[in-house]
Description:
There is one protein chain. The protein is built from four helices and no strands. α2 runs antiparallel to α3. The protein is an all-alpha fold. The chain has a domain at 57-142.
Amino acid sequence: MNRISEPFFSGARAGASPSYEVLKEEHEVSVLGGPQSSMAARTTVINIQTDTVVPDHIVWSLFNTLFFNPCCLGFVAFAFSVKSRDRKMVGDVIGAQSYASTAKCLNIWAVVLGLLVIIGIIIAVVVFYTTALNRGYVGSYHLPQD
């Protein structure tokens, strides 16, 4: 700045030197945060990511835990679903997707194995019942006579 120029404020005292007025004005600018026009240059941009939808399959895992739980696959799937939900709450989308994928795979295997077990039990009951019916064991209260 030119120190010989006039003071910035028009009402400055005549006894004060021009350099004092300039320094005082610069100090006020630094304390108050600068003039109004420079505030646009000091803006802060915060990027907020939209919620990435990561299915955690927790309801499916709970259902498999209660009803289709061969080899505890439903329980393990439920544990991975809870881990996926925890990762999603923390903000770790990649970790949440990894745990959710594992939970989904375990849920599929739990449903498949559970259905196979149920179908196998139904077939076994039907076979044993028809065999017993053919031999005469069902409906009679006495032992068959050969």
